[in-house]
Design brief:
single chain, 2,3-Dihydroxybiphenyl 1,2-Dioxygenase, domain 1, mainly beta, four-stranded mixed β-sheet, 146 residues, globular
Amino acid sequence: MAFTFARLTPELLIADLTRSLHFWVELIGFRIAYERPEHRFAYLDLDGAQVMLDQYDPTARHWLTGPMDRPLGRGINLQIEVAAVEPVLARLEAAGWPLFMAVEDAWYRAGAIEVGQRQFLVQDPDGYLLRLGAKLGERPATGRAS
């Protein structure tokens, strides 16, 4: 199967590519689509969900809008759809990686329906917030969605 680039791909500045790759690949389940080791850069994919990791280098060109204060990515969470959250949760637990929010089933109104997902939140090594979710299905909107 040919690789297809997503039409929107966040590029995250990170502190340590090796540590981030351990988290994103080994724990979350992404694969490295390609990398440029000489620039400490990797392009990751998980069934069409894509993210770029770029290790911060104060001497390199980066598009910074402010200081690189931790946690990075304040005000954003990256929603990533997975087939099931349980395998990811098991890997995180085995690694002793803390969750930002425990797993829950949530329903969100989308027009005349509610869309359900089993979800949890976790921060990557630099503090970027990931919300991983698996589809639970759809139901008619009741007005009581989470």
